[in-house]
Amino acid sequence: MEWSPLIVTLETAVTATFITFFLGIGLAYGVVRLRRGQGLMDAVITLPMVLPPTVVGFFLLLAFGKRSAIGRFLLQFDITLVFTWKAAVIAAVVVSLPLMYRTARGAFEQLDRNIIYAARTLGVSEWRIFWHILIPNARHGILAGLVLAFTRALGEFGATIMFAGNIPGRTQTMSTAIYAAVQANDYDLAGKWAMSLVVFSLIFVLAMNMWLNKKTV
């Protein structure tokens, strides 16, 4: 049993979750503060969550392919994204970002606005309000979003296989390895990778639940 899909999956999921964590919180905070166009921005950010992953992968191909404006620009620096590990990370970020964003936004909107108004009245800067009031009080929702984003990135398949491909040792994740094994009628190998995904996801969710429960006691 080749272990490269496990390594690629973990590297991809961890990197994508790191990016999604900060990007999702930033977008949630920005949208909450918007006075106009909030609904449109929310719809655009959430769209990858409701689209089929293969559609997301197709649009990523159009956006970053060699014929696109972005692709041509990157080629000037000898940078290619399609069918690389970077593409797998981008695909995982795009499909998991809505989960982090929606959860963080919900956590921000549930906070008592009077606390924020009081801080502003006392002359506290928006930066300090964000780091010392919003983040600590919304931490449970943010961590819940982190769990959802990581597990979503861990099991991403459709956008990944469209945009990053299924190259063993480079872009083949456990999800795409399962697909390849089924195509080859190797159900034993597919079952091993499927159980591996279940175990990793379950361990991560249980660990986060235990940590959250410990913090609330």
Describe this structure in words.
With 217 residues, the chain is mainly α. The protein has a single domain (4-216), classed as MetI-like (MetI-like fold). It has eleven helices and no strands. The chain has helices at 4-33, 38-50, 53-64, 69-75, 85-109, 113-121, 126-137, 139-154, 158-163, 174-183, 187-216. The protein is globular, with a radius of gyration of 20 Å. The N and C termini lie far apart (43 Å). The relative contact order is 0.15. The mean pLDDT is 89.
| Main beta-sheet strand count, sense and barrel state | none
Question: Which residues sit in consecutive blocks of at least 5 with pLDDT less than 50?
Answer: none
Shape: globular
How is the CATH topology named? MetI-like fold
Could you give the count of β-strands? 0
Q: Report, as a whole number of angstroms, the end-to-end distance.
A: 43 Å
CATH superfamily placement: MetI-like
Helical/strand content category: mainly alpha
The CATH level-2 architecture is identified as Orthogonal Bundle
Name the helix and strand elements from N-terminus to C-terminus, one letter apiece.
Answer: HHHHHHHHHHH
Specify the CATH class.
Mainly Alpha
